[in-house]
Amino acid sequence: MFYIKPKALFSCAFVSLLALQAGPIVAKEGMFTPDQLPEITKDLRKTGLKIKPSQLSNLTEFPMGAIISLGGCSASFVSDQGLVATNHHCSRGSVQFNSTEENNYLEDGFLAKSLEDELPAAPGSRVYVTKQVTDVTSAVLDGVKEGMSGEERFKVIEQNRKALLASCESDAGHRCQVSSFFGGAQYKLNKRLEIKDVRIVYSPADSVGRYGGDADNWLWPRHTGDFAFYRAYVSPNGEPAEFSKDNVPYKPEHSLKVSAKGIQEGDFVMVAGYPGSTSRYARLTEVKNVFDWTYPTWITLLENWISTIEQTAPEGSDARIKYEARLAGLNNFYKNLGGQVKGAKRVGLVDRRAQRENALNEWVANNDDGQGFAEAITALDALSEESAQVSRQQYWYRNVTRPSLLGAAKRLYRLSKESEKPDPERESGYQERDLTFFSEGMKSIDRRFDPAVDKAEWLMFIEGYLAQPKSQRVAAFDQMLGLTDEVDMAELSKRLDTFYSDTTLNSVDTRLALMSASATELENSSDPFIELAVALYDVDIAQENASKDRRGRYAVLEPQYMRAIINWQKAQGFTAYPDANSNLRVSYGNVMGGSPKDGLNYTAFTTLEGITEKDTGVAPFNAPKAQLKLIDEADYGSYELKSINSVPVNFMSDLDITGGNSGSATLNGKGELVGLVFDGTIESVNSDWDFDIAKTRAIHVDSRYMLWVMEKLDNAQFLIDEMDIVK
Ligand code: ARG
């Protein structure tokens, strides 16, 4: 890091450092869209890519044709019979869905001995295969005129978006997506095959696939077998179809070869997947609001929230099973936020952002060429400030409207209102194309709902809400719950009880039946949650319209700001990449250890012996006895890495990833699968705002460990045989 000039140091906050040597301690910033890769050919080559960068731009060719999305997680095809590799933590919900007391697949693992034994994944599970990506910027912006109000502009853009989706999806079996890049400077239409019959093939036991559990989450050294396999099925004529016994495995046009040879320290690796969101270009105003207010507020709330659930759903209770996923999610978020706050301090995020903005301003002052960048940036900052104030203002109201059945009531009432309009004019989320997911949402509530826990959460949120100044309260809500200045909490608690005792929304049949209720019917309902939803409707719509208006204003200012950034970076020889937006990206770099803090070094690999070393016999450090025996006997099979005298379990790289990348294929320079990315270190999480080239490290499960577990522990040789293994 020492040889980076100060100027490069802050520009590297968000660009590919073509000019820099890829030294051993400098992490590789950049989540590039595949079409950008030819622009950075030189650096890709220098880092060790063997195939042509232009080959990676071709989304329907090898290897990108094998990279798929599960919606939320990433994955890849690893056989010509539709076999899908992803993370254990991505498919665990589906395994849980199929688990019973007698067949506890979480504890025992699951392996289908033949196609007939494969189990349907949880309802709503999908495999999305990208078929085509088109630049639709001018179609999305068609009809946008200068002088339009934010709300008008938002409407035009939204109508154009919906029209593009409708025409794209008129080709049956596809689910399309219009995404904005560079804050709306560019829009792309992604046409994806939507495979609806997804089945679980193999998921190692939690004691392997979740080894280390939440204790080890975000940490290194790591020994988690975070991998599992799904299979995609289609109708006998090859089209996406709902689950049916007659369906057959989908034959992907491309699948990845799996490397049994693996990588060594220093080798080139890249990750191809669907990172969710980053804020690398956020303005200082937003950064300050988030780190001074939003995150600290969340941290306090999460502490209360987690302990509320733990108290009302004690370990071993039936309620705990329903809330396990939520607890894991909240704990994951909590640990992440702690890491972000620490990381922001460590790198001096606020100062760095201020410096970067000054440098950009200076450049803009001399290079505007009549493009009005400076004015746009000033207006953008004012808008950022406005958004920050609104988000604080509405924070507690949003929390008190979280209860599951209130959420269901609100969505049902909205659906009844939207259904009065012709389909193309309905709010997105309530169109014909959305109703499958809508009803899945209505069904899945039961799996995650317990009235006592839900009520305890609600009471906790309301307490926080009541502690806020009156200006942050919503009169309609206060009135419906009888919240006055002096609320008797015991009284309130009793009142909330009546919501749960008098509602009929706790029945899935009722919820599904109400999907076809008219607005008038719901307005006449005496269900307490529906009454509350109806009473809050006008407030919610007013807030939503104001938010649309802001989004409409962002839609002119942000592209201006991002164009200034792109030009500024280009002038210095850098390629700016867009913030993550759940679209396909490629990150690349090398296998390497790191140093999280003074006096501590991370090695690049962990070993089988590390599992034994960590093992306590108690979850989450309870490796199967048979595995400990294999390790004790040093039974490495053909998967040993000589430099570490063992089978590598997990490895580290300096790649740029974030949430959503989970399950992404980690590829070597030839495009062969050498692992799956499943986490980042806690020191990396602040990179969502400001990439830390010194500390950022991604964590992968090694393909050799995957194969070793399959061959030696779980007797899944037949699955290995199905894949194309490179020795
Ligand atoms: N930290 C990972 C992420 O946010 C989630 C890992 C899940 N594993 C766990 N032990 N909770 O993507």
Description:
It is a single chain. With about 725 residues, this protein is of the alpha+beta class. Helices cover about 45% and strands about 15% of the residues. It has 25 helices and 22 strands. The strands form five sheets. Strands 1, 2, 3, 4, 5, 9, 10 and 11 form an eight-stranded antiparallel sheet that branches. The chain has a seven-stranded antiparallel sheet with strand order 14-13-19-20-21-18-17. Helix 13 packs across helix 16, helix 13 packs antiparallel against helix 21 and helix 14 crosses helix 21 (about 530-570). The longest helix has about 45 residues, at about 530-570. It starts with 5 loop residues before the first helix and ends with a strand. Bound molecules: arginine (ARG). The site of arginine has 10 residues, from helix 9 and helix 11. Arginine (ARG) binds near residues 217 and 328.
Mean pLDDT: 94
The small molecules bound here are: arginine
Biggest sheet details: 8 strands, antiparallel
The radius of gyration over CA amounts to 26 Å
The number of helical runs is 25
Any key phrases for this structure?
single chain, 727 residues, alpha+beta, eight-stranded antiparallel sheet, seven-stranded antiparallel sheet, 15% strand, disordered N terminus, binds arginine
List the helices and strands and how they pair.
Blueprint: H1 6-11, H2 41-47, H3 53-57, E1 67-69, E2 74-77, E3 83-86, H4 88-98, H5 105-108, E4 110-111, E5 119-120, E6 127-135, H6 137-140, H7 150-169, E7 174-181, E8 186-195, E9 197-203, H8 206-209, H9 213-216, E10 228-234, E11 248-249, E12 258-259, E13 268-273, H10 284-312, H11 318-347, H12 349-367, H13 373-400, H14 404-418, H15 435-444, H16 451-466, H17 475-481, H18 489-502, H19 508-513, H20 519-523, H21 528-571, E14 585-590, E15 594-597, E16 600-602, E17 605-607, H22 608-614, H23 625-632, E18 648-653, E19 665-667, E20 673-680, E21 698-702, H24 703-713, H25 717-722, E22 725-726
Parallel strand pairs: 12-22
Antiparallel strand pairs: 1-2, 2-3, 3-10, 4-9, 5-9, 6-8, 7-8, 9-10, 10-11, 13-14, 13-19, 15-16, 17-18, 18-21, 19-20, 20-21
Helix pairs in contact: 7-21, 10-11, 10-13, 10-16, 13-16, 13-21, 14-21
This protein binds arginine.
